[in-house]
Amino acid sequence: MSADLLALLLPLAIAVPLVAGLLSLLGPLRPHALSLLPLAPVPGLLAALLVPRHTSFEAPDLLIGVRLALDDNGAMFLAMASLLWIAAGFYARSYLRRSDHQPRFAAFWCLTLAGNLGVFLAGDVATFYAAFACVSLAAYPLIAHERSAEALRAGRVYIVLAVVGETCLLLGFMMAATSAGSLLVPEIRQALPGAPHPNLTIALLLAGFGIKAGLVPLHLWLPLAHPAAPTPASAALSGAIVKAGIYGLIQFLPEGAGPALWSDVIVAAGLVTAYSGVAVGLTQSHPKVVLAYSTISQMGVIVAVIGTSLGHDPAPGTLASASFYALHHGLAKGALFLGVGVIAASGPKVVRSVMIVMALVGLGVAGLPLTGGALAKLAIKGSFAALPLHLVTLSAVGTTLLVLRFLIVVRATAAAEPEARPEAGLLWPWLATAAFALAVPWLLFAAATGEALSYPLKPENLWSALWPVLAGGILAIVAARVMRLEPPNVPEGDLVVPLGRLTDGLVRLVATLPPLRLPIGGGWKRPGMVGDGLLKVESALTRWPAAGLVLLLFMLGAAATSGGLR
Amino acid sequence: MSGIMPALLMLCPLVPAVLTFFLREDSHRLRNAVAIGSALLKLALIAVVLLGVAAGNEYELRIPLVPGLYMLLRVDELSLLFITLSSFLWLVTTVYAIAYLGGHENLSRFFGFFNLCVAATTGIALSGSLVTFFFFYELLTLSTWPLVVHNGDEKSLSAGRTYLAYTMGGSAALLLGIVWAEGVAGPVEFIAPLDFEDTGTLAQRLIFVLCVGGMGVKAALIPLHGWLPTAMVAPAPVSALLHAVAVVKAGAFGIIRFIHDVYGIARVEELALGLPLALIASATIIYGSVRALQQTDIKRRLAFSTVSQVSYIVLGASLAGPIAAIGGLVHLVHQGLMKVTLFFAAGALAERIEVRSVDQLDGAGRRMPLTMVAFSLAALGMIGVPPLAGFMSKWFIGVGALEAGRGWVILVLAGSSLLNAAYFLPLIYRAWFKPAPEGAVSAGAERPLALILPAVVTAISVLGAGVLAGLWISPLGWATLIVEREYLP
């Protein structure tokens, strides 16, 4: 196929989900709305696989000139997201088969998908912002789908943070685009360090993207939204949607040219996020909440990697390794979330095999040798200098603990009936995603890092991947069996409760500001002598011939006066 | 030839206005046919003129009134922006009003003044000189008053009194300003900025304050906005027209005309008048949003939202830069499309399912899905969610402010966006995510279609104006053309 035709896959990757969303609401496909879900991301996947890099597509009539482009990092995100959305789409068909409001769910699913893939394809800032807003806002109905009190509360926290995040981004984008004198993302990024207020701009972008990516303390929505959303939506949320924030940081933060301070600040913020995600996650007992904190922690690691790319003379391929890490995390976390539903449907006979796969994928996130996760961890190591490197390596111990915590709490949710088996519609999408998580990084490792496949098999690399997992395992056994530690009880979404009180107070304050009004008109309401007369005149005027006559007189008068003034 | 077009455009609403006054109350069909027919005809004429102006043609008509006084009607790019909006909304509002007022009384009076009000708006758009502008500006005041008090009850009459008190005061100031300006600089036509050579800067500033302050009443700048929330007692089609195109827009349009074509942006900056105006507009934006947040009546909330949103237009015009000017101009159209949709929907909700306050909205999405989809789209557009129309306005005003060295404006935009979200999102949430109250009737709520479809049509235009903003014929494309022709003569 010619390159021109292939370039059409870029707009199709966004347009097909949009059309699918529309079709699921209208017309004869309405009863089969869920069947559209696995098909909608297919053009996105094809685009990631087939379209040559640095292809672009332009539609100057749309928005303020839409430009779609695909680069290496974008393709990595696009491929991961499309794969995950396809699998989650199949899963949703089974999972939501008996649910109410399927067409509505399908429509917002497709809208979220379109925005999500659009973020990875956007080549100009307006398209990027539109796609980002689309994924942010359209995810709300997915989170609140169940309409339960928890779902609505999670939705409220989510939407408040999302709107604040959007606003920060809008400001950051306006400032960045104005100083760059261009709408194109690469040019904006290049001009950012020389902008009039680079610190403010970077802070705004970091806040906007950080909210989506779950950067502590902007992570509040994640631990509430994930358990509230239907399981396939949680998978997409944690696997793909959160990555939109990561991709934004990759696209807009100036590589190798950031103001010196920012590199350190972002690395530190990432590490704080990585560790606090583990710390709070260990106290949780709902499997999806534990996974949500694991996502927060892992996003912290990626943000730290991105942070190093801002410093002068960053290690080559830093951003590619961050994308690679994100690719693995997206697939692995997607598989773990989908697995939560599989385990709930598995009786004693099958649950053991299911748990083995879950353990393999889960410990992969901690970097278990030979899994895709080990490759991801290996890829990012080159980015860090001494201290952060040790901290990142050490965080894998925490991740191991967190994964074990997850495995324990999720095991307890298995079905009780001895014969219970997950249906094929849940089982296969989950297995496929798990297989992708384990295998896809092997396929892309060489391309992403430039290292040969024998590199991760070197003994020292195998050992450096293995010891944190071993250490974590031993720690877990010591804590649970020997010391019989019970985790303290921290509410889901930790800081939401005190912060919620603060914002409620703020809203109440705004609601009581007094009105400002000139005293015009008020005095007329008390009819006195003059007032009575005016009322009579007025009621006479309401009969239209009188009003018309007065109007005519006035027009003549106005013409005459302005004539006289000349 | 070139004079015929302005005349035809002017007569298009004026003739039906006069005819309608003399129609019998029960000749509904004829009255409706006259109204819709002339609206369609006018849109067709505008299409011709649009193409002509884009190609560089000029249309001008001078009508001598008394010696030394003439009316000047001229079609330029700016007038077309306004007149296209007003004609499109005239058509949909007429359809809506026919359905809304179906069995009411005094329909000939209503539609007569309704058409007269559109004639006045057309005149304002086409005015080529300050005197002509003032004439139509007053005609507008007088033709809208009977619409505001249409219901005839004490509340309406009281609102009408407030309306007249405010607008007459504003007009007096405007008239004084115009007379003064003409006194020192001769007849003012909207071609080139005024020649103020022999006039002191104080006089120049005072004239500006008188004129912009006078028009600021209609544009509802604080503290001159008091009439607007009160006037929403009028029937929904009137509110829609008043808020979207007729009165507040006449004020905003007048201010744009005055800044661009009477003083010129350069002089406004020279006299240090841009910054105070931008500050007033910003204060209005925030104040209107805060007050909107406090309202529980849907129409009142929308009314304060108008106070806030119309000031975007003034803000864009006051920032003294081409990009911000585009933002202000395009918001003239975008705000109209969004606000008319919101009022159509609010009227339909009140009329069909008795939903008037925010807490009655629960489950309205299920009961009136088309209406609420339209409402939601327009509300999201107001917040500035891309790719809807409101985003384009915000983007251009924000970028324009930064370019003009007034970075603080983007904080106003951000604050307003957050407040907009705070007062619109709960409405959307209630309508779609809360269950309808027990015993709520929804069968047949979305009838007649003439009451529902206008909101749908304008909501689609909100989407279209944003998504297809890159087309030359889009509001944004046209606003860009206006500014290009002004800045690059």
Amount of helix of chain B: over 70%
Decide which structural class fits the backbone of chain B: mainly alpha
Supply the helix-strand structural class of chain A. mainly alpha
N/C terminus separation of chain B? 25 Å
Main location (chain A): membrane
Keywords (chain A): Cell membrane, Membrane, Oxidoreductase, Transmembrane, Transmembrane helix
Protein name (chain A): NADH:quinone oxidoreductase/Mrp antiporter transmembrane domain-containing protein
Membrane topology (chain A): Multi-pass membrane protein
Structure at a glance:
Chain B: One of its GO terms (molecular function) is oxidoreductase activity. Chain B: It is found in: Cell membrane; Membrane. Chain A is mainly alpha-helical.
Main features:
heterodimer; A: 566 residues; mainly alpha; 2 domains; two-stranded antiparallel ribbon; 22 helices; globular; disordered C terminus; B: 489 residues; two-stranded antiparallel sheet; 2 strands
Could you describe the 3D structure shown?
The complex is a heterodimer of chains A (566) and B (489). With 566 residues, chain A is an all-alpha fold. Chain A folds into 2 domains: 13-254, no CATH class; 256-496, no CATH class. Chain A has 22 helices and 2 strands. In chain A, helix 6 (125-143) runs antiparallel to helix 7 (149-180) and helix 13 packs antiparallel against helix 14. Chain B is mainly alpha-helical. Chain B has a two-stranded antiparallel sheet with strand order 1-2. In chain B, helix 3 packs antiparallel against helix 9, helix 5 packs antiparallel against helix 6 and helix 10 runs parallel beside helix 13 (298-318). The mean pLDDT of chain B is 90. Classes of the chains: A mainly alpha (566), B mainly alpha (489). The interface between A and B is large, with 63 and 74 residues. Chain B: The chain crosses the membrane at residues 6-23, 35-55, 78-101, 113-137, 163-185, 206-228, 240-259, 271-290, 310-333, 370-388, 408-429, 449-473. Chain B: Its EC number is 1.6.5.3. Chain B: GO terms for molecular function: oxidoreductase activity. Chain B: It is a multi-pass membrane protein.
